Amino acid sequence: MAALGTAMLSVADDIHSIALGMILASLGFGMFRPGFTSGASLAVSRAEQGQSAGIVASVNGSAYILAPATGVWLYGHSPWIGFAAILALCLSVIVLGLRSMSPDDEMLGQKR
User: For the whole model, what pTM was predicted?
Assistant: First the structure.
């Protein structure tokens, strides 16, 4: 959904398509964030969950500072580069997620 919204936003030429693209992108990124945070804490042992939560929170915080500056810098070079970078990152998350997924019974067998 984030990739679709970003693609729509990159080719939008009127206020309605800009708004729709922004809505879809924001909804997609909004659904991604809680899963990212909870997934990181579930991927480690109970003793490491505090460390994992701290690392995830610090990375998320730095993203609010680095992402806008990087986006403006890329957009300054070419309007397409910024959107292409976002789309590439969204697609890489999908590919990495699909490659690393395993059936639940395999995961349960590994943790026991």
Answer: 0.52
